[in-house]
Amino acid sequence: MAMDLTQQIQTALSKAGNYIHGRDSESDVTYESILQWKEECGLASSAAPAASPSASPSAAGEPKHAWYKTGYNYWEDESNCPATVDGVLGGFASLSKRDLEGSAAFVRELQSTRPALKLTREENDGAPTRACECGAGIGRVSKGLLLPLGITQCDLVEPSPRLISAAPDYIGNECSSKCRYFCTGLQEFEPAENAYNLIWIQWVIGYLTDDDLVAFLQRCAVGLRPGGLIIIKDNTCEEEAFIVDRDDSSTCRSLPYVLEIAVIAGLRVVYQRVQEEFPEDIFPVPMIALEPKR
Prior knowledge:
The chain is of the alpha/beta class. It is 36% helix and 20% strand.
């Protein structure tokens, strides 16, 4: 499956005139194609279902298990990521306010053209609303965006026990009672059917392999309520299809690469735009609103 999916992505990108080559972030190593990189790291044939980083390698295939284990260990190490806003943003705490403001403006733009998106109890005919923050860390997006938007309940999904355990204190007593906490990787998370008005996925898709990202987005689609949306907000690269960071097992994909994965997952773009007022020397950060294809 993994090789077939890779070939499908490469073919679609090539036909559209988009890049398929990539590189390592901290070395001169380059790859002519997505498939070449996956074959070299062993992920091309790793089609077994993903498992927890703490499971035995045979549960998911050794290369894929090692991929997730490296990322898990990186974020569990406090020296890499203190349980603070600066820690979860990789030293870019100064961007948090602009990021949250940009996200709020994006959601307001969505609601102005999409009344079916219900975020508050009042908008939802008195019924509670629910959002999911995926790759939640300490709950920065729940505290700074989702709860202020009027969401009744937030579910936070985060694989790092250390970070998710710090979330209630960070969010605060008044709002933490409106949250539920799930310590699991997104490759394992299964949203309940018809559970969420909004699923927010930010700065985390790079930690999922392509096949696991497709499967995760398909499960998210099942978890949406009528009128609900999936939002992806993440770094993208512009001069190649992907950039691999082996320190934390992450992949920065190009925007066409991300959009092709969404198409394969059975989703369509409702609206998208790029986060504004970020420094020019960092990756572009698009915001993409998705819904299941009808």
